[in-house]
Amino acid sequence: MAIMDQYLGDTAMPLVLHDAQFLTAAVRPASYPPLGPPEVAFAGRSNVGKSSLINTLLRRKKLVRVSARPGCTQQINFFALNGDACRLVDLPGYGFAKVPLSVKAGWRGMIESYLTGRPTLRGVVVILDIRREPSQEDLMLLEWLKSLGQTVVLALTKADKLSRNQAASRLAKLRPVLQTFDEQPVLFSALSGQGREEMWARFQELVEPPAPSAEPPAMPEEQDGRG
Ligand SMILES: Nc1nc2c(ncn2[C@@H]2O[C@H](COP(=O)(O)OP(=O)(O)OP(=O)(O)O)[C@@H](O)[C@H]2O)c(=O)[nH]1
Ligand SMILES: [Mg+2]
User: Is 177's C-beta closer than 6 angstroms to any atom of ligand 1?
Assistant: First the structure.
């Protein structure tokens, strides 16, 4: 694929975002788009600002619906970037208190099936509200991702709701709790665009395989494949 060659090849060229398109919404694995390019998933408690963060990241105002009512994203939404050179996956928000237990269980199953059944998943961006303590569910998700060996990028969003000093002090407070998951959480605001470049850089690191090291590994001895 031309775009893939151009942007994900072994040149050090940064992944430049040209286009982002909605691919499909799925509840069950059977409806996921076929495995292909690397995927990065976005997860977070309902109403945390996940859709807003994704729209800001992709510089699109309305690609993902921002809700007036929490709990709107009830499917897994797949987006293709740069003609499907890589994908962004919006997972349904968890933890909205007013949702019936049966729906909650459904969400959990949906998130678990995706996170455990997708070999092309390169990492998960977990979004937290900078003003709030991480919930039980946030911490459970993080612990679980860690036990799966999944790479986590943390985004602390709605930073515009705090002064610069308040945000810095919240970050200092949260860091010890969060550092085992991500040492460099990204301070983010969909309103001001703060953290957008940093988040894009982190996204890029996840989808772009690290450049081959200067010294190539020694060639293995020629083998006949039988021994
Ligand atoms: N001030 C401020 N408000 C934000 C920010 N991000 C989101 N919001 C607001 O928070 C509310 C929820 O935003 P969404 O982006 O829909 O959150 P979500 O996590 O996708 O919500 P669900 O899909 O319903 O679970 C909306 O009213 C947004 O306008 C931000 O960075 N700053
Ligand atoms: Mg949403």
Answer: no
191 CA to centre of ligand 1 in angstroms: 10
For the Cβ of 48 lying below 6 angstroms from any atom of ligand 1, the answer is: yes
Give residue 67 CA to ligand 2 midpoint distance, Å.
Answer: 6
Task: Tell me, using a 6 A CB cutoff, whether residue 77 lines ligand 1.
Answer: no
3-state secondary structure of 155: strand
pLDDT per residue as tens digits for the range 177-209? 999 999 999 999 999 999 999 999 999 999 986
Domain boundaries, the chain: 17-207
pTM of the model: 0.85
Count other Cβ atoms within 10 Å, centred on residue 212: 9
100-155 confidence digits (pLDDT tens): 777 777 788 889 999 999 999 999 999 999 999 999 999 999 999 999 999 999 99
Query: Angle 78-83-89 (CA atoms, 0-180°, nearest 5)?
Result: 15
In which element (H, E) is residue 193 found? none
Specify the CATH class of 17-207 in words: alpha beta
